[in-house]
Amino acid sequence: MVITIAIGAPLGILAAARPGGWQEAAVLTLTSFGVAVPYFWLAMLLVSWFALGVPWFPATGAIAFTADPVAALHAATLPAIALAVGGIAEIARQMHAAMAELLQSPHVRTLRAKGLSRGSILYKHGLKNVGVTVLTVIGLIFNRKMGATVVVETVFAIPGIGSTIVVAAVNKDYAVVQGIILVLALLVIGVNLLVDMLYVTLDPRIE
Question: Residues 15, 96: contact at Cβ < 8 Å?
């Protein structure tokens, strides 16, 4: 999610700030690819290119963060990228659509007439107004990523919660399956509650 937000939001702002330019066309093309590409296919490509072809990252396995934080982040890089690409595309598209609509509003035209710079309009006024929309998308993406981890963990042979529930289901260990589903449900409810609480911070008009 850190990778998703850190890359997706700036790409959406860039596309909205350059309407009709090559930047907007490039971002929309990349986001169309990101939305369409399957997680497992991208994961296999990343393994083929950056683990087997150029051995920069491990192809399989994971390292506990408490044991070695640097090695843990290094091992989690390719799985994180595989999960993040789809979210980057979604956030960039939503940010672009919301920001482009805002930049055409009378409110922004008034700000331009007052002499405010493009950067001030985009970051000081634009982000604040589209924040609720983007925050909603972030919450939805987070919930979907938990389901996508099942596939990505299988490709990278990571002993995570996704592979655990698959093994438990195959072995008919229903207690483990129920426990994991309960934890995932609580996570979804918690994230949705956090998003609702942040709405008030971004827009005080929401009670």
Answer: yes
The tokens of 164 are what?
């655990």
pLDDT (0 to 100) of residue 186? 92
Q: How far apart are CA 63 and CA 43, in angstroms?
A: 18
What's the DSSP call for residue 105? S
Residues 6+ apart with CB under 8 A from 177: 165, 168, 169
The residue behind tokens 């790409």 is: 11
Report how far residue 177's alpha carbon sits from residue 139's, in angstroms, rounded to the nearest whole number: 24
DSSP states of 27-54: HHHHHHHHHHS-HHHHHHHHHIIIIIIS
88/111 Cα distance (integer angstroms): 30
Q: What is the pTM of this model?
A: 0.79
Query: What is the C-alpha separation between 1 and 85, in angstroms, rounded?
Result: 10
**Is residue 206 pLDDT above 70, yes or no?**
no
Confidence of residue 107 (pLDDT cuts 50, 70, 90): confident
**Average of pLDDT values for 98-121?**
74
As given in the structure block, the two tokens for residue 168 are 């438990």
* Residues across the chain: 207
- Which letter does DSSP use for residue 164 in this model? H
| Burial zone of 180 (CB within 10 Å; 0-12 exposed, 13-18 middle, 19+ buried) | middle
